[in-house]
């Protein structure tokens, strides 16, 4: 038992270290599609080190909320990673209902990002905050629908009960087709929550069209580094869930399972990169429809599963 | 263990949701063609015996549903240079939610039927009823005349699936008769479409209320 806890902590540290690397994979894929060489795979580490070396500049019109924002969202991202089952091992923390806890933990992080953005009193940031507050509401509906489905299948409200050991394989056995829809819908939520391309363009240079990026315009130095790390961790968390669903073969061999998991994770990131390369960003009024489609998918698979399980 | 037919039918149900949220005519036509193909091969998978006659009927229905009618409508769109965007009376978001509600209600309704079960597929009757309702919904919720034709065909797909659920032997003859009716109806609709387009330079059926002598 002690061993497994140690292993889980090891995996957690590994996740924290590796997350910026995976985000760079997306950049590489996009560069490949653009016919460019692209930045090195370690680019995000260089950026983070550069940012952490710098000092911070705070506008005189901001209050302590502004300084609190990056800290809170960063810590909420770290804590949510503690609950991620990596490669079928049990996570560091796990209790009944932890899924809901994680969802609201992320909500807390988001709330403070929004509060910090509003604190700057910049109209652009206020607009970004409004969008950031609106879109995840529909995402939450999708996530809860997926939770309901998993609850129907396993009777538990724990991430570990869905994704650790042979559980994922059991999910596939009992609900094969709907699970494919779930993967698609979870992927759509991933794109929305992490401000990736069809919803938001992380590389855009026009404040009016930004969602997430516009909210962090006023942050600098270490604060910006924490915000970047937060986005890497969040992306890793969601991709981890999708990858776990894809790679749910439930092999007893840990090393093999781990390799499959990493490959699945790479697959998810490369898919994000491909989507970013071949899709243009949606017009703002089309974004709710996109997220609603993910909800429809999740709801639909829940109905189908209910029917098939009879 | 999940039946192959159930997998296909869940894709059909998904295509219903897609058709509710799509605002492109060409996408709708492709969805219809897909539904037509699936609906016409389903009897092969749940039928007990595969004879030359059933194969022939299946191929004919598949050709009409999956190729003739979609290509026809596609040509109609091309010739009439109809706008690719669909006019609605009920918005896309609401349509999508309505689609979900429709599938749920279809599943609940189908549980009330006491049908002598001829297959292990649990989704057969729900899919049939959903297709029927979805066809009616498209007729109500869209003002574009071509989408109305598509809704009509979707309804017919549903009727065919209902027939498949209830009987396996006699259904081919009856169904083939209905299919020929549908084909004729689509042709007539194509002609009417042409005259609507000539009169108003659009295929919006709401304009028909302004007709005067």
Describe this structure in words.
The complex is a heterodimer of chains A (310) and B (213). Chain A has helices at residues 2-33, 43-53, 64-82, 98-119, 123-154, 159-163, 167-174, 176-193, 221-246, 254-278, 287-308. Chain A has 310 residues and is mainly α. In chain A, helix 9 (221-246) crosses helix 10. The longest helix of chain A is centred in the N-terminal third of the chain and has 32 residues, at 2-33. The radius of gyration of chain A is 19 Å and the shape is globular. Chain B has 213 residues and is mostly helical. In chain B, 75% of the residues lie in helices and 0% in strands. Chain B has 7 helices and no strands. In chain B, helix 3 (52-80) packs parallel to helix 7 (171-200) and helix 5 packs antiparallel against helix 6. Chain B is globular, with a radius of gyration of 18 Å. Classes of the chains: A mainly alpha (310), B mainly alpha (213). The interface between A and B is medium-sized, with 18 and 20 residues.
Please summarize what this structure is:
By secondary structure, chain A is mainly alpha-helical. Helix content of chain A is 71%, strand content 0%. The model of chain B has no long low-confidence stretch (mean pLDDT 80).
């Amino acid at each position: 038992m002690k061993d497994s806890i140690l292993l889980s902590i090891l995996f957690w540290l590994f996740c924290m270290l590796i997350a910026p690397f995976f985000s760079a994979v997306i950049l590489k894929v996009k560069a490949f599609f653009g016919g460019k060489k692209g930045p090195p795979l370690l680019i995000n580490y260089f950026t983070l080190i550069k940012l952490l070396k710098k000092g911070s500049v705070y506008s005189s019109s901001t209050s302590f909320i502004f300084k609190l924002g990056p800290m809170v969202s960063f810590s909420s991202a770290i804590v949510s990673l503690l609950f991620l089952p990596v490669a079928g091992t049990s996570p560091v923390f796990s209790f009944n209902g932890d899924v809901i806890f994680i969802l609201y933990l992320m909500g807390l992080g988001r709330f403070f990002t929004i509060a910090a953005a509003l604190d700057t009193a910049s109209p652009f940031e206020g607009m970004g905050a409004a969008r950031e507050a609106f879109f995840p509401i529909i995402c939450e509906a999708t996530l809860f629908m997926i939770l309901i489905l998993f609850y129907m299948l396993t009777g538990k409200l724990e991430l570990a009960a869905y994704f650790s050991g042979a559980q994922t394989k059991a999910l596939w056995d009992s609900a094969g087709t709907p699970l494919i829809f779930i993967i698609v819908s979870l992927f759509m939520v991933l794109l929305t929550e992490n401000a990736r391309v069809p919803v938001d363009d992380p590389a855009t240079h026009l404040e009016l069209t930004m969602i997430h990026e516009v909210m962090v315009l006023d942050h600098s130095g270490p604060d910006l580094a924490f915000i970047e790390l937060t986005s890497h961790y969040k992306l890793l968390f969601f991709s981890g869930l999708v990858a776990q669903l894809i790679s749910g073969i439930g092999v007893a061999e840990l090393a093999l399972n781990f390799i499959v998991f990493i490959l699945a994770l790479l697959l998810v990131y490369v898919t994000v990169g491909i989507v970013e390369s071949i899709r243009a960003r949606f017009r703002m009024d089309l974004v709710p429809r996109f997220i609603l489609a993910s909800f429809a998918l999740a709801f639909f698979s829940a109905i189908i599963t209910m029917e098939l399980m009879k | 263990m999940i039946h192959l037919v159930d997998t296909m039918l869940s894709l059909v149900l998904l295509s219903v949701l897609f058709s509710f949220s799509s605002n492109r005519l060409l996408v709708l036509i492709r969805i219809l063609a897909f539904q037509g193909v699936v609906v016409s091969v389903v009897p092969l998978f749940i039928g007990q015996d595969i004879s030359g006659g059933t194969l022939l009927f299946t191929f004919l229905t598949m050709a009409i549903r999956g190729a003739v009618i979609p290509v026809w409508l596609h040509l109609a769109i091309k010739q009439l240079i109809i706008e690719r965007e669909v006019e609605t009376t009920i918005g896309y978001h609401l349509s999508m939610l309505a689609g979900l509600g429709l599938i749920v209600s279809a599943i609940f309704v189908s549980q009330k039927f006491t049908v002598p079960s001829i297959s292990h597929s649990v989704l057969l009757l729900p899919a049939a009823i959903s297709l029927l309702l979805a066809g009616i919904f498209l007729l109500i919720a869209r003002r574009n005349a071509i989408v109305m034709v598509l809704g009509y065909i979707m309804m017919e797909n549903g009727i065919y699936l209902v027939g498949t659920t209830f009987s396996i032997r006699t259904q081919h003859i009856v169904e083939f008769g209905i299919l020929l009716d549908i084909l004729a109806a689509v042709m007539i609709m194509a002609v009417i479409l042409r005259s609507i387009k000539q009169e108003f330079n659009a295929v919006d059926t709401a304009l028909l209320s302004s007709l005067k002598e």
